[in-house]
Amino acid sequence: MIRIPEVRLSSGGKPMPRIGMGTAVYPFATSEAMHVAILRSIELGYRHFDT
């Protein structure tokens, strides 16, 4: 699995991935397609989702 760069937040020092999965396409894609895309993103290692 590829290592995703992180940044430490000043509010608590916890790392946050610099690369995230955006979901703004929702009105233009079915909820089922978004469900599959999000599950696949998790399998690939994404941990930052912009909802």
TrEMBL record:
Organism: Musa acuminata subsp. malaccensis
Protein name: Aldo/keto reductase
Superkingdom, natural source: Eukaryota
